[in-house]
Specification:
single chain; mainly alpha; 2 domains; four-stranded mixed β-sheet; 22 helices; 63% helix; 5% strand; transferase
Length: 447
């Protein structure tokens, strides 16, 4: 990373795993959006294939339909191909579940290694991993009760999960990045999460009705089998997995849609058993064809509708960073260093520049709650801006030159906002406003 493209564009407060993945992606495919799209498509297809593997023995008739359904849902809903961390760790979780519960015994050791790498992509996978291991212990309870000493072996087996974390941490300290590692983990274990009630977390699912519907089908299916007192292992795994992935998605209290992506896999796995349940009475022949037809004629129209909505939104919200960059180029200006006071930090990438402040996402220091939770040092940011004297400042939501300072609400980091007003009004002039409400200011003397 160290300020070199492409890795510094991906800088954020995340574990090292996602950077390793993107280093591989861009190393082989080059630094481009196309490379990201291709890699995400490969990962989603891989996840769908493993879902098919998991279902083919216990629910073979609908395994293909479930895999296809996952592929369609993931491709169109919840930012499924946007290259988010959830997409990559979910693929590893699906693979880990396969090795842990269904793979050959000689390859079972791969499960904790795969899940361990998922953990260093995003730490909230700990909810899922802990759930998998508790269920694994439960399924092997008879063997453990017969041989209590075997419990130690299970614990040592699960402990392999931490190997990727220990290796990566040793490497991070070895290259002299230990201070940054400790700082980010201090932020992680602070009060960064918003305090929301469990009911509010449940209600958040209404924002994503398709996912909520599939989960309801899964829950209904689970209780149907529970009534028969015979729950298939896949259904049991998926039921617990849905619960843990829900906790993982909502633990911060921020209900961003891509946080819910990992819930699709267990929801698809579990809901597919409804057709197996109905199959006893209603589907004597052509079972697999019925499932495929159902997926094609029910899910695809829904996907098309949502796709049209995404296209519509993409037209409403243009690529502001690119528009700014093109306008600056057309004006034959080189305003570097640039600074994003509030708005899209994508312009850093286009101007091939490292952010002048340590925290790249403006919302993390402009928002009062985030600034407090992440231990933002306002004086440090003000000092860096004053010393760097950026040639361009992007400020969204408020026009510093036109709106009085009393225009801001209580959610802003007031101390920093006052500084922005004073600094920009003193040394900058208005350049242009970009939709929806983003203003660019250039330093006096730039033209």
């Amino acid at each position: 990373m160290q300020g070199k493209l492409p890795y510094r564009d991906l800088w954020d407060i995340k574990p090292i795993g996602i950077y390793i993945i993107y280093a591989i992606i861009h190393g082989f495919l080059g630094f481009s959006i196309f490379a990201i799209r291709v890699s995400t498509l490969i990962v989603v297809v891989c996840s769908a294939y493993v879902i098919w593997l998991i279902l083919r023995k216990s629910n073979r008739s609908f395994a293909l339909g479930a895999g296809l359904g996952f592929l369609i849902l993931f491709s169109y809903f919840l930012n499924g191909l946007s290259g988010n961390t959830e997409l990559f760790y979910l693929c590893l979780e699906v693979i880990g579940v396969w090795f842990l519960f269904y793979g050959k015994k000689k390859y079972r050791f791969l499960s904790p290694l795969v899940l361990g790498f998922a953990f260093i992509i995003k730490y909230n996978t700990a909810f899922d991993i802990l759930g998998f291991y508790l269920l694994h212990l439960y399924l092997h309870r008879k063997h453990i009760f017969k041989n209590p000493k075997s419990f130690v072996g299970y614990v040592l087996f699960y402990a392999i999960t931490m190997l990727p974390f220990f290796i990566s941490t040793i490497w991070i300290f070895g290259v002299g990045l230990g201070d940054s590692f400790l700082e980010t983990h201090k932020i992680l274990f602070s009060n960064y999460a918003k305090k929301v009630t469990f009911v509010e977390k449940i209600v958040s699912l209404q924002t994503y009705p398709v996912l909520a519907t599939i989960i309801l089908i899964q829950l209904g299916t689970f209780f149907l089998y529970l009534g028969k007192k015979k729950i298939p292992k896949v259904l049991l795994v998926s039921f617990l997995w849905t619960i843990t992935s829900f906790f993982a998605a909502t633990w911060t209290g921020y209900f961003f849609e891509h946080y819910y992506l990992p819930m699709i896999a267990p929801a698809i796995l579990g809901s597919s058993f409804l057709f197996r349940f109905l199959n006893v009475k209603y589907f004597f022949r052509y079972k697999q064809k019925v499932a495929i037809v159902f997926v094609i004629f029910i899910l695809i129209p829904l996907a098309v509708i949502v796709r049209k909505r995404v296209i519509k939104l993409s037209k409403v919200y243009p690529d502001i960073a690119k528009e700014i960059f093109v306008d600056i180029q057309n004006a034959n200006l080189d305003p570097r260093p640039v600074f994003v006071a509030k708005g899209t930090h994508g312009i850093y990438s286009l101007f091939k520049q490292i952010p002048i402040n340590r925290v790249i996402q403006p919302g993390n220091f402009t928002d009062k709650t985030n600034a407090k939770a992440m231990f933002i040092d306002n004086e440090e940011i003000k000092d860096k801006i004053s010393k760097s004297k950026p040639g361009l400042i992007l400020f969204c939501d408020l026009d510093v030159l036109q709106n009085p300072i009393t225009s801001f609400d209580s959610s802003w980091n007031q101390e920093l906002l006052v500084f922005y007003y004073q600094y920009i009004r003193k040394d900058y002039y208005y350049f242009k406003t970009y939709f929806p409400n983003c203003h660019v200011y250039l330093r006096n003397g730039t033209l």
